[in-house]
Amino acid sequence: MKNTQIPVIVIDDTPVKRRGVCEFVEETSFLELGGQCGDAQGAVTLVETLCQEHQENTTLAGWLVLSDLRLGSSNGVELGRTLLDIAPGLRVVIYTQDPSWTLAAEVFRHEYTRRGTPRNRRSGKSSGLHGYALFNNMEPAYLEYIASSVVFRKETYIDPEVLNYLLKRLRGQRLTPRQEECASLIARGLSNDDIALRMGFLNTKGGPNIGPVENLVSELYTFFSIEGAPSDPGRRVLLAHAYEAYAGLRQDPPLL
């Protein structure tokens, strides 16, 4: 484990819950509390201030945000995207009480807008967030694992209970061998062009023919109940998580 201390910002409008999460952060071996607040506007102000105070790291790279989903009249997912617009180096994890596959799609979606308008002032697109945790599982070991995933390894995190909820919905349905091969390559981070070459889908010139791959990917989205715009890369992130759970490839440590 790296020795670098990860600064953490905790956002929760319920004082008791916020205090509990902050205490867990302070009990971990490599996390440190960098700030806390109880509402969306306070979070925006805090992050803007931190960017000004850290001139050597104005994007707040290496900082972790833990935010409750419900913040009064505000939405933690939308707030997370606003914070990434201000400080794109942040890693943002949303937590809530109940597992929801629909919410998972919102957390990782790159084009999410609450009122149909882009959130990111620079690119015109909104960023996907980095993790979906469950409040009931909060404890130091859980937070350490999440931080290691999203900050140190630059991965995305989704609580195993959310994925188990999806697997129960599948009720024993199975992928075809071709679908499973395609899904396994997606989970390894390969592009459609690379997958076409690996699976032997070639055009007359010997280059990748991605048409069959796109069909397989569409089938996978349907199988795992992943909706959204075809251009949204967040769907591919969710598909990778879903396939790893389906295939038993995830190695989430048991909670202590």
TrEMBL record:
SUPFAM superfamilies referenced in this protein's UniProt entry, alphabetically: C-terminal effector domain of the bipartite response regulators, CheY-like
GO biological process, one term: regulation of DNA-templated transcription
Alphabetic keyword roster: DNA-binding
Top-rank taxon: Bacteria
Single GO MF annotation: DNA binding
PANTHER family: TWO-COMPONENT RESPONSE REGULATOR
Record-given protein name: DNA-binding response regulator
